[in-house]
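INFO  loader      accepted 1 record
INFO  loader      residues=88
INFO  predictor   begin
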Amino acid sequence: MVSQTFTVTNSVGLHMRPAAVFADTMNRFQSHCTIVFNGRRINAKSVLNIMTAGIGCGAEIVLECDGSDEQEALKAAADLFYGGLEQV
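INFO  predictor   done
INFO  writer      dumping tokens
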């Protein structure tokens, strides 16, 4: 298992569009991907679960990836958080 902490920089947090982009990206991987936020474990492949978590701008989340392509999944998430998810 690999994990990394990210800060949400999108001005409105992980609302519908960024949540959908994030979940779609995570769904490309076989690994289990979980967001840890405020003590809750959220399926990172579920748009609805991400949206209902109320992850706002400035929130710190931990993404855990566990499986055969965990490194690739974590890198894809990092690419989103550091390279454009805030523009969605």
